Amino acid sequence: MRLKYIHGVSAKITYRISHELNELNGITEKLDYLAWLGVDVIWISPFFVSPLTDFGYDIADYRAIDPTFGGLEDFQKLLEKAHTLDIKVMIDLVPCHTSDQHPWFQEARSSRDNPKRDYYIWRDGRDGKEPNNWRSLSGGSSWEFDEPTNQFYLHSFLKTQPDLNWDNPAVRDEMKNVVRFWFDMGVDGMRVDAIWGISKDPEFGDDSPNPDFHGDPEAYGAFIHDHCKMGPHFQEYLHELASVCDEYDDKQIVFEFYPDEKLGDIYQQYHRVMKAHPKASAFFMEYRQDEWHAEHTGQKIENYLRAAGSAKPFFCLGNHDQPRIASRLGTERARALHFLNLLTPGVSVMYYGDEIGMTNGELTAEDIQDNFSPANSVIDSRDLERTPMQWDDTQFAGFSSVQPWLPVHANAIRTNVLTQAMHPDSLLHLHRRLLHLRRNMPVLQRGTLEVINTGNGFVLGIKRELNSERAYIYINFADAPQHFFIPEHTEIIASTRPHRSIIRKNGQLTIPSHCGILLLHKGKWLNSRP
Ligand code: GLC
Fold it and tell me: Class assignment of domain 3-97+169-431?
């Protein structure tokens, strides 16, 4: 059986989305809304037992739910309701590190000959200092000295997140069993967190300096990560993990993956990941680079699809680690990119609240909760994109009846689900229209994608084709109206701007700045449309 969400849309939901309920029940309560919107897969951030030093990405028990989020019965109810509504459920797998509170690590650090010692990565210091120059993504060295056994342990993220040693077959078996545990419970897929560190240089050589970096010489970006990640067993271990899907008919794995240009051809890296296994995929995260360029965007999409081969594409506009798209690009450009993202093949991933154009929170240093933010700095803090979902214009935006852990954005007074649901021209309704179109038009689900020459460098043109059906998507990247030729016998089906602002004359279209438009070739589908 093929997965239904091959053609679906996934919504990333983090934390509580309802008041007086625990987080999982809050999500369950809002599944009807997601079904109304047309979402058919949800991806939920980690809700496992955790001291929450990295909001759940520091797991102390992979098989139990943290009471902050609810209990196992709550999760089972969530699964049941989601499946009744035809919504699939993906959860996070965090396979490359645990919490330092995990019993494995507690045992491992107790003595050098503890059987769990080799679950983690331990090294002697070099001249009394860290074993090498590897940097943690959350700042500082990746090595932490552990007094009781007089050795350093490796942590690619916070020091409360010690790296697991994937070269140990017992660790690989543990993780495969975690995947089986949740798949057996009915979970449909897993987003695999921070997978690039699954294999490292066995010699633990120093990372090379990055000649293009001119900031703090100790920063993560000051190095090319040619030793600390994507080591010789990278593909082999990915394959092993993804092979668990083979034991089931309809499960999916998607790897978190940010291509690293310094490590060679980025699409080759995609290729290596996505070719590794047919039920495994990797996210397309290129939009986060915010390069606003018609031709380059088209090339990136085509290259990614080529690299994906037969794997399912996962086009991603944002997540809990990236500034909100509406803040990055501005409302109009973001709207155009949403339009594009919803009309590309595979799974179009959106982050909660993006469908109403939520922007980065307005936070002060005192508000910051994320331990990745250096010295509680607001700039670049991931808390900016993690503020509560804006349901309505009440005090806590319908999210909670008490002050939530991050302040609700002041713009919730206008930017909220309830208000936009009442306005047919809203971003929310645009999402809903496109999601329902996708469902009903096979060419948008299964059609091939080809970037076409529009004769206008500011306008990206995309043709989707399936048998005799053809759809054309155009995005105007310019700050001014643009015109371009369009194929004959086509009809405008959807656009980001009112139809009256679009002029069709002598085989050409003139569309406003940052406008997206969908045309359909007048073929079989149009004639049989209800
Ligand atoms: C991933 C997660 C991020 C987390 C990190 C460490 O990048 O998306 O939120 O902090 O891994 O697990």
Answer: alpha beta
Ligand 1 centre and the CA of 461: distance in Å?
A: 34
What is the best residue among 57, 196, 349, 372 to mutate for testing ligand 1's pocket, by most ligand atoms within 8 Å of CB?
57
Q: What is the DSSP letter of 31?
A: H
Among protein residues, the one with the nearest Cα to ligand 1's atom 12 is 57
Equal fold, 3-97+169-431 vs 448-521: no
C-alpha span between 148 and 97 (Å, rounded): 21
Lowest mean pLDDT of 13-17, 284-288, 507-511, name the range. 13-17
Verdict on whether the full-model pTM lies above 0.90: yes
Domain residues of the chain, as ranges?
A: 3-97+169-431, 103-154, 448-521
Q: Which residues line ligand 1 (CB under 6 A)?
A: 54, 57, 94, 157, 193-194, 256, 320-321
- Residues 193-209: pLDDT tens digits? 999 999 999 999 999 99
- pLDDT band per the 50, 70, 90 thresholds, residue 266: confident
Task: Indicate which residues carry an active-site annotation.
Answer: 193, 247
CA 159 to chain centre: 24
Angle in degrees, 0-180, between the axes of helices 331-342 and 427-440, rounded to the nearest 10: 10
CATH (residue range 448-521): 2.60.40.1180
Cα dihedral 333, 339, 340, 342 in deg (nearest 10): 140
Q: Measured between alpha carbons, how far apart are the two ends of the chain, in Å?
A: 29
Domain 103-154 matching CATH 3.40.830.10: the answer reads no
- State in Å: Cα 98 to ligand 1 middle: 12
Confidence band of 455 (pLDDT split at 50, 70, 90): very high
Q: What are the tens digits of pLDDT across the range 246-255?
A: 999 999 999 9
